[in-house]
Each structure stands twice: as structure tokens, then as C-alpha cells.
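Hey,

The postdoc asked me to send both predictions to you directly instead of through the lab channel. I've kept everything plain text so nothing gets mangled by the mail client. Protein one:
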Amino acid sequence: MVWTPEFLTYQLSDDHPLNPVRLDLTMRLASQLGVLDGVELLAPEPATEQDLLRVHEPGYLTAVKSAPEMPFDVGHGLGTDDNPIFFGMHEASSLICGGSLLAAREIAEGRADRAVNIAGGLHHAMPGRAAGFCVYNDCSVAIAWLLEQGYERIAYVDVDVHHGDGVQAAFYDDPRVMTISLHQHPLTLWPGTGWSAELGKGKGEGYAVNIPLPPGTGDAGWRRAFHAIVPSLLEDFRPQILVSECGADAHAEDPLANLEMSVDGQRATYQAMRELAETTAGGKWLVLGGGGYALFRVVPRAWTHLLATVLDRDLDPATSIPADWTAHATSLTRMPLPVAMTDDADPSYSPWGDGKADRVDGGLVDTRRAVFPLHGLDPDDPRD
């Protein structure tokens, strides 16, 4: 596990939705529940300019470095409500990229089969501009580094409620990287991309996969869509490593989106990705954080389950929240806090092709019919 308290310096503004308190509360909860007992926490170095230039444009790096000292608009998506300029912006953003690079390096150099950086997952940043609370795209930087090490098949699965547009754009014409994103339908949520017909281009056609979900989709529909598409494609692609962006903002309580997952459904999703890493990627799994704006009630529980899953220390959903954690969180918020690691939800689902109808079926069928034939799979056969 990659961690440093310096990750908390990525704070866009005092009242910005992407508040690093969610990271601090996750680490406190995971520690108090024993998930991190005996786990060495690896402290990263900031990504170098060479690292960042694998993905980002030189002029953009210059803008990020100089923006805090500039008295005027620097452009590049900086200085907006989503991406306000803050002192130490380059340093904090580079450190998060360095964390994801360190996690990738631990796997590539054989010291670990799984590695996690919950501060990572800043998947919206583009080569020349900030977007969606993301200054540098650590996901793309880590994947680009893995490609330089000789990896030829990398699968990126993004379960954030927002489309993983920055990572898709970085590798849209590269058949070595399969990007799969499940997200709220682009007609109803920023960034307005991630349609089933976005497939990649050139040699990369068929290696960009998008699964748009209607607002209100809960555990059963979300998991039905996931299992109707993701396992078949990963089994066909046989990645050498699975990279997961695990934003927690598909939860029903998230204030910035409209899906209806529970912590229990998110826990089941993490466990499904762990199994897919084992069965399709030789056990190699690079795990990154992402979005999540229910800072006190959702993200710490969801990501503690995520850490437990990565470490094979699965928590019983009925596990009580420690009193010390609740006392600390209460000092920071007046909202009522959960008392257990569950939402008391049943995350079971009906598989696609079972003869029953679900509101997610239109989108998942569109995606299967667009992508599956490009991989020699039958889009209408539930066995594929």
C-alpha cells in the first residue's frame, strides 16, 4: 500500500467537494479495524517531469507550475470552479502521480501482485488541461510507464460514477490498453461522454468500452451490467495487469451524481474485480481511488472495504464502526454517522440473459453489440 500524509495537501480549496478529509478518514477507519495491521506503507516520491510528459504536454506542466504565482488567467482549465488554483498544486499533483507510479513499479518489478494508492484515480485530466477536479492524470501516467516496461495488454476498469474520459482519450488508438468504464449516462451527468458507440479508433477500435447506466441504477442493475460485459472482455483480452479506478461516487448518498449503489454493492464490486484479476490477469492488480463526495458516511467505509479486499482481509459487513473513529468524525461534521460497515442492502443481481428485463439492459445490449463482434464474441449469447 502506498501512503503518505502529504497526499492530504491535494486540497483544491477549503470548500471544494474533493476534500482530502475522505482519505484521512479512510486511513483512520482501516487502521482502527485492523485492516492495515502489519502492512508496510510505502511513501512515494513526486513523479518527475519525464514521468508526467509521458501523458501531459510541456506547456501544460509549465502552466501548472507557474499558476499559483500568476495574477491572471493561465487557461488550461485552471482557475475554474472545478479546478481552482492552489499553492503547491504541481507538487501535490506530482506526488499523487508518484504514488500510482510506485504502486505500478512494485508490481512490475515483482515485489507485489497487488498494490493500491487510494489518493490516485484522477482520471479526468487531459494532456493539456485540468478537468473534473484532476490536475495530472495519475492513471494514465502509470499505464504509460507500464507500457514502456514492455507490457502489451493492460486492462483499465473504471467504476467511478463519472466517465473515465481522460484515460480513454490517452489510449484511444492503442490496442495494448483496453479501457472499460461504467458510469451514469452521459445525457445526465458531466462530462457528457462515454456513449456505447465510443469504441476507440484505428488499431484501437474495440478497445474503448463504455457502459452508460440510467440515473437511479442500484446494486442489482449496476452489477448486472458489469457482469454482462466486463468478465467476457477480460477473459478474451487476457491482460497482463488489471488497473482499477474505484471512485465511490456511484453510491446513493453521493451529492454529485444520481446512481443508487450501496456500500454493500461496492464491496461486492471490489471482490468481483479481485477475482477477475486472479482469473484473467495472473493476479496482477493495480488499484487506484477516484471520486467520492459523501466524505463522512460513504467514502471511508467503501474504501476500507476496498483496502480489505486488496489485502485479502475481507470485513464482515456487520462490523461495527469503532467508537474512536466516530468521535473523531463527529468533531468534523454534524451529520449522523453510520454505525456499521453495511447499508443493510442485498447486493445480489439477476444475470443478463436470464429472461428477465431490467432498465439497464438497453445500454448494456448497445455496448455488447458495438464491442463484442470486434473481439469475435457473440453479443446476443449470454454465454459470451
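Protein two:
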Amino acid sequence: MASLCQQGAVVLFGVLVLYAVGFLPMSAAHNAAHDTRHSFVFPCH
């Protein structure tokens, strides 16, 4: 079973990736994460 620290690191990494892709100007990266961002109420446009 993973420790709480490991789980927190994975969650933090996932959130950072999600928000980083939200600010990238590439339309391919934007479109790849579009539905996921909207499901977390991240305004992307």
C-alpha cells in the first residue's frame, strides 16, 4: 500500500500537469485535456 506522502505527490503531480496543459498555447495539448479541465471547472477559454 502506498504511503500518504506518495499519494499526495501523485495527486500534486496530476494537478500540476492538468493546469500546465491548460495554459499551453498548443491547440493539440489544449484539446487533449479539454473535457477533463471542464469537469474540474477549470476555465480554459
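Summary for protein two, as requested: Residues 4-23 form the longest helix (20 residues).

Thanks,
C.
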